[in-house]
Amino acid sequence: MTTATLQTSATTTRSAEGARALLVAAFLGLGLVFVVGFAPATVLHNAAHDFRHAQNFPCH
Amino acid sequence: MITRLLSAALVAGFLASVVATGLQLALTSPLILQAETYEGEGTHALAPALDASSAVRLASLIVPAHAHSHAPGEGGHDHGTAEEWQPAPGLQRIAFTGLATLIGGVGYALLLAAVMLALRREPTPRSGLAIGIAGFLAVALAPAIGLPPELPGMGGAPLLLRQSWWLMTVIATGLGLYLIAVRRVPLTILGGLVLIVAPHLAGAPQVAEAASQVPPALAAQFAARSLAIGFVFWALIGLAYGWAWGLFGREADARSHA
Question: With pLDDT > 90 as the criterion, what percentage of chain A qualifies?
Fold first, then answer.
């Protein structure tokens, strides 16, 4: 209970920062996973080929 | 907070990918190389009609790399033709597998971080491990039920269909796990179960008769090893993310108090 009351003053700024961090992390994460697992470019496919097979991404 | 999150995700992705790369090189890469010796010998010679018709149907939909790789008379596999770049066998191929695992590991770690933030879970090794295992269930195990990990040369349904089913299954399983494990009310548990089961009732895209020269024992071994590596990968990402989050938090505290 005490921690909750202590945190309330900082809650608004923290939640805004948290939302930004959430967006950045989700966007970057999806981008990286797409490049390595789904990107159709042949060069990317060939470079990540063994990883795609081992991690069970659908592959050719 | 953003710096702390990104730092922790980088550390977690790096540590997990080092281990996963080692496991892949020891366990799955030899099987992939072995399967590639069967590729092009009989797979595509046996099913040229299938390939040709699917190439015509999907030529407009599918990416150029795959459209022309399915053209009859060609080598068959994506890296069959000379002008396409591919890592040289040996060290270069190993290096690119490691690089891909690193990028994938960091990507997974960032997604795990985003999920933990959205769930308002303070990252610790323990809570990280729980989310990591959920990640394994949703991203590795659930799609593998419909689309088992495949070796090169095991022809399947058109790539775009399989990728769509894979993605839908991952999202549905993730949501289902959230409804069951986080919400934990009878109604949401029921909804979660429905979400988890639905993609498998709908069924993964399959080819009626996939001709393959790859020995079944090899394929079975590959599927089991692939899932085992996936489990270690995800568990380590979760554990290491929770650990690194605490590490960078202490450093930030020390700086602010100094």
Answer: 67
